[in-house]
Design a protein that fits this description.
4 helices; 88 residues; mainly alpha
Amino acid sequence: MVILKDSTNKDSIKEQYDQLWKEFLNTDEHKVENIIRIANNQLLTKRDQWIRVLKPFKTHLTWIIPLSAVATAILLYVIFIWVALLVE
């Protein structure tokens, strides 16, 4: 892949960009913001995309809740098996 500044198609891409900007001027603001947000996300590296996706999980509470739910489910399963063995 060639970087855009070294590309031979740089002028045609610039014309497409200018045409797209003119169309943006006649479009809903929220729709344009969403398009720009998606384009910015696609320009990021895969590592940066994953960091952005996992950013909400950096707090302790969002890890404690699912882990405690899994631990509770496992504990209930073990207690159920233990009680079943005692009853038998």
